[in-house]
Amino acid sequence: MPTVALVQHRLHERALMRIAILGTGTMANALGTTWARAGHEIIIAGRSLTKANNLAAQIGGTATTVPEAIMDVDAVLLAIAWTGVPDILDAAHASTGTLTGTTLIDPTNAVDHGIGTHLLPPHTSAAQHIAHLAPGSHVVKAFHLHPADQWTDPTRPPVTVPYCGDNPQSLTATATLIRDAGSTPVPYGPLTRARQLEEVAGFIITLAFNGQDPRTAVPHIPAT
Ligand SMILES: NC(=O)c1ccc[n+]([C@@H]2O[C@H](COP(=O)([O-])OP(=O)(O)OC[C@H]3O[C@@H](n4cnc5c(N)ncnc54)[C@H](OP(=O)(O)O)[C@@H]3O)[C@@H](O)[C@H]2O)c1
């Protein structure tokens, strides 16, 4: 839980951040690698300390336990399979307010892979559910629409990354991290817009599993 002074200090100095990544899989590796290259300090934690140690050694970060990783950081990335989100937030003791005031970036896709249907009831979103599980945190939905290698494969051109959330400082921090991953941040409004962004992922996944290039299903409208 960062102090206000700490957050302001770090955001004003070239915005180099201390980032906790919860998860040790593909997304943790990709975003951890690109943010470490950009100069951010990366702390890895997951349900397996061995995997966290291995990933930290690979990307040039440090590894620790989940409760320690989230202390005094500028942002937390929830790089966890959707079904594991409650467990990892439990391990972080999030229900007791340990993530209060923390930017909590949610790249999860709570969709039925292969089918693309959203797993949550209408009128809510994975991001809002995470906010409910981590009271006081500042959840920002981002990074869920592109495959992980977007963030590490130099042959992939930069992309547009829509992101949404309710806390201005957390939105600014996330925009910085999108830029530092080589792409363009596009604010998409408050966290209530997360459902729409998550449904877009379901749309993309459905087409991709049907062998179609999702980009061919949307009109090309040149930027103005
Ligand atoms: N990969 C992509 O291209 C991509 C793109 C956009 C968004 N996403 C989203 O990003 C998130 C992470 O994806 P990923 O590709 O990194 O998945 P992944 O490689 O399968 O890694 C999933 C991570 O979740 C952890 N996990 C699973 N169940 C858990 C539980 N019950 N408790 C604690 N940890 C648990 C795994 O731990 P163990 O290793 O110990 O099993 C692992 O660290 C997902 O929500 C996914 O939808 C992925």
List keywords for this structure.
single chain; 224 residues; alpha/beta; Rossmann fold; 8 helices; 15% strand; globular; binds NADP nicotinamide-adenine-dinucleotide phosphate
Structural notes for this entry:
By secondary structure, the chain is an alpha/beta fold. It has one domain (4-214): NAD(P)-binding Rossmann-like Domain (Rossmann fold). Helix content is 36%, strand content 15%. It contains eight helices and eight strands, in the order αβαβαβαβαβαββαβα. An eight-stranded mixed sheet has the order 3-2-1-4-5-6-7-8, sandwiched between helices. It is globular. The termini are far apart. The mean pLDDT is 94. NADP nicotinamide-adenine-dinucleotide phosphate binds at residues 23-28, 46-48, 51, 79-84, 87-88, 107-109, 144, 147-148.
Itemize the secondary structure elements and their pairings:
Elements: H1 4-12, E1 18-22, H2 26-37, E2 41-45, H3 49-59, E3 62-63, H4 66-69, E4 75-78, H5 85-91, E5 103-106, H6 126-133, E6 138-141, E7 160-165, H7 168-180, E8 184-187, H8 194-209
Parallel strand pairs: 1-2, 1-4, 2-3, 4-5, 5-6, 7-8
Antiparallel strand pairs: 6-7
Bound molecules: NADP nicotinamide-adenine-dinucleotide phosphate.
Short description, anyone?
The chain has 224 residues and is α/β, with parallel strands linked by helices.
Bound molecules: NADP nicotinamide-adenine-dinucleotide phosphate
Distance separating the two termini: 40 Å
Radius of gyration: 17 Å
Q: Do you know the CATH topology?
A: Rossmann fold
In DSSP terms, counting alpha (H) and pi (I) runs of 4 or more, how many helices? 8
What is the helix/strand order? HEHEHEHEHEHEEHEH
Helix content: 25-40%
Number of domains: 1
In total, the number of strands is 8
Major sheet characteristics: 8 strands, mixed
